[in-house]
TrEMBL record:
Protein name as annotated: Probable sodium/metabolite cotransporter BASS4, chloroplastic
Gene3D superfamilies found in the cross-reference section: 1.20.1530.20
Localization in the cell: Membrane; Plastid, Chloroplast envelope
Stated family: Belongs to the bile acid:sodium symporter (BASS) (TC 2.A.28) family.
Organism: Crotalaria pallida (Smooth rattlebox)
Transmembrane intervals: 26-46, 86-103, 146-167, 179-198, 219-237, 249-272, 293-312, 324-347
Described purpose of this protein according to its UniProt entry: May function as sodium-coupled metabolite transporter across the chloroplast envelope.
Pfam families for this protein: SBF_like
Signal peptide stretch: none
Entry-linked InterPro entries: Na+/solute_symporter_sf (IPR038770), Put_Na-Bile_cotransptr (IPR016833)
Domain of life: Eukaryota
Amino acid sequence: MCVCLVGGDGGKETKGLSWVQPILRFAGNNVLPLVLVAAVTLGLTYPSLGVAADKYSLSKLGPFGIFVISGLMLRSEEIGAAVEAWPVGLFGLVSILFLTPYFSRIILQIQLQPQEFVTGLAIFNCMPTTLSSGIALTQLAGGNSALALAMTVISNMLGILIIPLSIKKFVAAGVGATLPTKQLFKSLVLTILIPLILGKVLRESFKGVSDFVDRKRKLFSGLNALFLSLVPFTQVSRSRSLLLLVKPTVFLVAIGLGTLLHLTLLVFNSIAVRTLSTISGGSKSIFSRKENAIALILVASQKTLPVMVAVIEPLRGAFGESGLLVLPCVAAHLNQIIFDSFIVNFLRPKDNSNNVKVA
């Protein structure tokens, strides 16, 4: 009788906690969106914490940590698998770094107050592709993940050279600002290139490091999200008084503009893939292969928040208040991940049950 009672209580306890598991599973699969939302909320609620963190340069630690981890997680052998699809990858790089930034000029024509919301989205549009979500979503959709990785790595490396020029050409002239190109280039090298190389060297130099990182990829992705959250946290904290003056409807409009931008890039790259497929051999073209098309469209249509953050920091107010510049881009970054996740649900193979976390 006693055993039955214990068993009954145990069953009730298990049943009572069953609702926790779906929540934990959801949180584990959506670390980045949840952490970014939490960082912005914390910055608005307790700005003194963010101001103190900024005083001790935690906002600079964030981008450095992100790219050290990115270097640690970068598998060299995967890049070789993308060689066969090099024409697709080449067009993807051209789209990411040279074609899509032209849309920044259209964005700057929009009248919205504060102007930093529009300017921030225009700068965001000049960025390379996301560091990991494009790769993860490509894998989920059954696309060429090696090609996605190659486009991601190369566009972010070349972006160090090209981003300052793109911002100067497409954004600075539109808002009448002077861009400190040399300072921005130096900052991008220090916050992106050096830590990325450092992480990669650590991975290749010590076998135990690469094995540990590969076993704990989910942990390192979570750390990446935490490092990324430091910047919006400090910048929103610093700009809280200005943010509270912004009407909710204006911020919703800014979110809508970010979503519209991503949709525009998806349509643009989809049309480009179809056109290139037609003129290069039709169904036999390398562009017509579904796995290559998926990789190109997803990766070339996303823009990265961490590099945007690394760019904003050294500008020292050249384009306005940094918190106002970054906030709509945080929303745009989240929106593109969420929107593309729905697209992937239609594209993914039915037998693909990999649980890949996007970041």
